[in-house]
Write a structure and sequence with these properties.
Length: 249
């Protein structure tokens, strides 16, 4: 369990922080990653302004390694597969080693690969893609499909975490669209739990339209919506994610 937290912590740092550490459970296999992103896009268009960011993540165990040289060679092979630079960096920590490589694609999306090796020779592979200012939702859907194909080509079933973040549309509470109404009407979503703290509200749901799910120990959940109000500007930032939000909201 300790190593799972290490791997997720590394993944969160690449994507600007961790807001949902309590939900770092394994995503169960289900619907394709791209379909999850396409499912959330209409909601983001309803409730967010036009300037939004998209983050996609795959995180799961990968093959064992024999020694540090073989770990590095495999890391470079994986980098070539995902069309990343081969001059990735190898670092050593107290209880794991890490190979990291990253690039920005032709559409301005950032792609980072982390391969984490634990000292019992097991490993974790983490891919994080983030949209840039000129990256369209269609570009991110295509990136996700491309990465899915490449993961499957080496025998990995993708375990995707998809998030969209942007400023809440509308000038005030009354004019802002309600994500809850949309979720109930379009995805038959049922609320699982709600959490409020320091200007943030987070609600988790379960929708039968989304096959992936995680558990809070009591109930299954596969969708999260969070709104954070900036205490200075009063601007509201909204984040939606499936099966959970794993970036700062």
């Amino acid at each position: 369990m300790k190593r799972k937290w290490i791997a997720y912590a590394l993944c969160f740092l690449i994507a600007a922080g961790c807001a949902a550490g309590a939900w770092a459970a394994r995503v169960n296999a289900g619907r394709s990653a791209a379909s999850s992103l396409e499912l959330l896009l209409p909601l983001s268009q309803q409730i967010m302004s036009s300037d939004k960011s998209i983050v996609i993540k795959h995180a799961d165990t990968y093959q064992n390694y024999s020694d540090e040289k073989q770990f590095l060679d495999t890391g470079r092979m994986l980098g070539r597969l995902f069309e990343l630079p081969e001059d990735g960096k190898l670092s050593r920590e107290e209880d794991h080693i890490l190979y990291r490589t990253a690039t920005t694609d032709s559409h301005g999306a950032d792609l980072t690969m982390l391969w984490v090796g634990f000292f019992d020779h097991t490993s974790e592979l983490i891919l994080t893609g983030g949209s840039g200012p000129d990256t369209s939702p269609a570009d991110m859907i295509e990136l996700q499909r491309k990465l899915t194909d490449k993961l499957q080509s080496i025998g990995i079933k993708p375990q995707w975490n998809v998030m969209i973040q942007g400023v809440l549309a509308g000038d005030d509470e009354a004019s802002s669209p309600s994500p809850t109404d949309w979720l109930v009407a379009k995805l038959q979503a049922k609320q699982v739990e709600q959490y409020e703290d320091n200007g943030s509200t987070s609600i988790t749901y379960y929708s039968p339209f989304i096959s992936e799910h995680i558990s809070n120990g009591k109930q299954a959940m596969n969708l999260q919506v969070a709104v954070h109000r900036n205490s200075i500007t009063q601007e509201k930032r909204v984040t939606i994610g499936t099966p959970a939000i794993t970036i700062e909201y």
